[in-house]
Write a structure and sequence with these properties.
The protein is mainly beta. The protein has a single domain, classed as Jelly Rolls. Helix content is 15%, strand content 58%. It contains 1 helix and 7 strands; from the N terminus they run αβββββββ. Strands 1, 2, 3, 4, 5, 6 and 7 form a 7-stranded antiparallel β-sheet that branches. A hairpin with a 6-residue loop joins strand 4 and strand 5 (78-83).
Length: 121
């Protein structure tokens, strides 16, 4: 029985390492129905996460530019990723630890946009 428990623990350990740590929060960087260029709300993460997934939901636009930004101190912002797709999409950023995140919509010719993100270590 003891050997069976050890084998099970060894088999499950890689799954735990691959899955990482997620705080369970999906951040609404740009709220549903936004119709203009805007700098979204700043969100403070629990600690500097280094894996980020961010998604855009776009309706009725043909020209879009959205920048996903991060900061360690909430004053110096850097671009983590940029999307110019007029279709809804999810994008992934890795190996860029930040404590604060926000999205900036710099181009939106028509329609609406929403931007969400989640973060893992």
């Amino acid at each position: 029985m003891k050997k069976l428990i050890i084998i099970a623990a060894l088999l499950l350990a890689p799954i735990t390492l691959i899955a990482g740590t997620w705080n369970g929060t999906i951040y609404q960087l740009i709220p549903t129905g936004t119709k203009a260029t805007v700098t979204g709300s700043t969100f403070t993460l629990d600690f500097p996460y280094d894996k980020h997934t961010w998604c855009t939901t776009i309706a009725g636009a043909s020209s879009v530019s959205v920048t996903f930004q991060g900061s360690l101190d909430n004053s110096l912002w850097v671009t983590l990723d940029t999307s110019t797709s007029a279709s809804s999409e999810c994008r992934h950023v890795v190996n860029k630890p930040v404590k604060y995140v926000r999205a900036v919509v710099s181009t939106l010719d028509a329609g609406t946009i929403k931007v969400q993100s989640l973060h893992m270590n």
